Automatic annotation (TrEMBL):
Source species: Haloferax marinum
Sequence intervals crossing the membrane: none
SUPFAM superfamilies cross-referenced by the UniProt entry: N-terminal nucleophile aminohydrolases (Ntn hydrolases)
InterPro entries registered for this protein in UniProt: DUF1028, Ntn_hydrolases_N
A family per Pfam: DUF1028
Name the record gives this protein: DUF1028 domain-containing protein
């Protein structure tokens, strides 16, 4: 097993836009490579003593028609080290969060309507509470809500050792530049993630303008990862 230090994260589902997303920050590098997973039917995060298969398999089983809470429960039931894990996620019809008894304090989670938040090795429970409250109170698209939630959690104390990396990952019917953003090593990764989000939105608007100037009012689909690369 490989120990991934303290982390807090959020997984969410917006049924109105059929969008799933996850965002995470931690006190070690490249958290986006191993912790968040999304698909057309689920979002899941695996952390603490991270087992990547739990995130990957949870969304795969949701894609196959299984409830995400049943999938996570079954995955953990066959894991000899489940007490060291933290796994949470959402599907189209369920939410699930698990914090093992051996996770490093402070550790805990929150389950809301269409979202879950979890963290370990944190400054305190205020981090999870602030992350949840910010997600509920932000009325924007999924990427904005997730980054705002991380910002609130960080402001409440965040990882007890400070953060080094952050990521946001979104699955939506129409992909955007800002649906897969990672800050792999930084003194202030959540702030850098916000800057990336802002720049990705600016780039999308600039490409839209240049394309419209050249070709007229083309459908948005032509811009999604198909023009100006």
């Amino acid at each position: 097993m490989r120990h991934v230090p303290g982390t807090f994260s959020i997984a969410a589902h917006d049924p109105t836009t059929n969008t799933f997303g996850a965002a995470v920050t931690t006190g070690t590098v490249s958290v986006g490579a191993t912790c968040p997973y999304v698909s057309a039917n689920a979002a899941a995060v695996t952390q603490s003593y991270t087992k990547t298969e739990h995130g990957r398999d949870a969304v795969a089983r949701a894609d196959a028609g299984e409830r995400v809470d049943d999938a996570i429960e079954d995955l953990l039931s066959s894991d000899d080290y489940a007490d060291y894990r933290q796994v949470h996620g959402v599907g189209t019809d369920s939410e699930s969060a698990f914090t093992g008894d051996e996770c490093v304090e402070w550790a805990g989670h929150h389950v809301g309507d269409g979202y879950t938040v979890a963290g370990n090795m944190l400054a305190g429970s205020d981090v999870v509470d602030a992350t949840a409250e910010a997600y509920e109170s932000t009325d924007c698209d999924m990427a904005e809500r997730l980054v705002s939630a991380l910002e609130a959690g960080e402001a409440a104390g965040g990882d007890d050792r400070g953060e080094m990396s952050a990521a946001v990952l979104v699955h939506a019917p129409g992909p955007e530049f800002y649906h897969n953003l990672r800050v792999d090593l930084s003194d202030d990764p959540v702030s850098d993630l916000r800057e990336l989000l802002t720049e990705a939105r600016r780039a999308k608007a600039q490409i839209q303008k240049e394309t419209d100037d050249l070709f007229g009012d083309y459908p948005d689909e032509i811009l999604n990862f198909g023009v100006k690369y």
